Structure formats: C-alpha cells, structure tokens
Amino acid sequence: MSVFSDALRAAITARGLTLERLRHHLRLQDVRVSVATLSYWQRGACRPERPGSLRAVLVLEDILGLPRGQLITLLGPRRPRGRWLDHVPGSLPLERVCPVHAGVRRLLARIQDRTDGGLGLLSHHDRIVLGPDREELAIQGQVVLVARRDGVDRHIAVYHSEAPVLPDIRLARQCRIGRVREDRANGLTAVELIFERRLAAGETYVLEYELAYSAGGPKPTDYHRGVRFPIRSYLLQIQFDPAALPARCFRIWQPDIGTPWTDLAELPLTRWGATHLVQADAPPGCHGIRWEWE
C-alpha cells in the first residue's frame, strides 16, 4: 500500500461510488481510465505516472470533492528506473527538476563537485526578500545536512534565475565560501560552501548562506525549489516590502518539470507582509509560491 492509494480508497469509500460509476464520471470529462486501473491505483498495485494518468488524478480530486492537489501531491516523483535504482531511494535525476540541467551539470563539473548523493537534507529553509519596486533583494538559505558517507566536507548551493541578472553578493555562516561559478546565459550561480571539517557518516551539519544584489535584482512573480532528494522538512518564506504587497499568493507544486504546475491553495499574507509554505517529508519535485500583483 501507499499513502496515495490509502487516500484514494478512503475518498472513494466516503463518496459511496463504485469503480464503474467513477469510470463513468471520468469519461464525462473526456478522461478514459479502466475499472481495472482504478482498482490497481486504490490497492497500491501500481500508480499513475503518465501525463494522461496524472490528469485523471486531478479530475478525480474534483469528482471526489477533494481540495485541489490533495491526491496528486501524495504521489511524489515517478519511481526511479535504470541506473537511478542504485542512488538515493526516491530521488529524481537532475533533468526531472531543473529545466537548465545541462548548465547546472557544467557548473558542478567546473567546481569538481563529487558530493552527489553524499549528503541528505534534513531541513531546508528558503527566505526570499523583495523590495519596494517588486525586485528581488536577497535569497537566504539555512540548511541542515546529514552525511550519507564518510568524508563529505562541502555543499553546493545552486540558484537559477530566468532574468538576465545574477546575484553578486555572497555571504555564508558556519562555513566558508569556496569556488563560485556562473552561467549567465542560463541564469545560473553555483556557490561552494565548505564545512569546517570532513564529516563522518551519520553526522549532521548546519549552515546558512545569502545571495544578494549590489544593483537592481529581477522582478519575479514566483519562487520555487527543485528538490532531487527527499527532505524531512522544507520551509519557503516570501517577504514583501510594505510598499509593494501582492494581491494574492498561491502555493504551487510540480512533481517533475514534464508535468504542469498545480495551484494547491491560496496562501494568506501576514500583517508583516510575508507568506510561507511548510512541507513535512517533502517529496522530490518542485515546491514553490507564486504571487499576483493585481
């Protein structure tokens, strides 16, 4: 069984629908799924993974009266196949969470990064600060890591911007900054954050970093993190300037970049001009917040 199959089976039972009636409702919305497939999904014998199947899950949420995104977020990433079966369980390859994965790989090669899979993320806290002209002022991160093997001594922070401007101020706490590499054509910055010593397997480490702009930053309408490995806790905060508060904010989710974004819920804005999302046991995929100015 799986969390997804348990939730699907409970929702079907609560609505009192047979699988045949459920298939009928799906066909009325031009979604064709067999009764056998629905049975497999609710028993955990297989899971929806293809784009058509993922669309069926979104339609099922409506038919079963569930909040948008409640079922599909329980799927997490597709099951790894081929050589990825030898990597961290539940992980996604870079090309599934990053649209400019080739550029990222080139930057990591230039830093000579050999930590892939050697560190686990226990928690990750992103804080994005926006200015009075809606511009991005800073990207602040706090990361709690655990060594999966002996000898790991660094973490690589990668930032991707779709705007042509990159942060040029870099600060770090509980670590020191090593090599920094940029790929302006793809909007990428990679920063090597070096620990005070090499870690033993199972040892934890906490570090903080900040990327900022000496001149005007980009003017984004969303921020998201592409997550390759499971994270026990992910927190994303967006801090707006009091002079430039958005009209609405939404939590967004994408199991991989080949699947359309889903708005999961509208997020409240605090009296201090901030909003956030918290995800315990965050699955690989893309977790984020988007906002509308008016």
Primary descriptors:
alpha+beta; six-stranded mixed sheet; four-stranded antiparallel sheet; 294 residues; globular; single chain
Radius of gyration: 21 Å
Which sequence of strands runs across the widest sheet? 4-7-2-1-9-12
- Low-pLDDT runs of 5+ residues are 80-86
- Count every helix, treating DSSP H or I runs of 4 or more residues as helices: 6
For the record, give the distance between the C-alpha atoms at the N and C termini, rounded to a whole number. Answer: 44 Å
Give the % helix.
10-25%
What is the overall pLDDT average?
A: 88
Structural class, by secondary structure, is alpha+beta
SSE order in H/E notation? HHHHHHEEEEEEEEEEEEE
Let me know the number of strands: 13
The biggest beta sheet reads: 6 strands, mixed
Bulk shape = globular
Approximate strand percentage: 35-45%
Short description:
The chain has 294 residues and is α+β, with helices and mostly antiparallel strands. It is built from six helices and 13 strands.
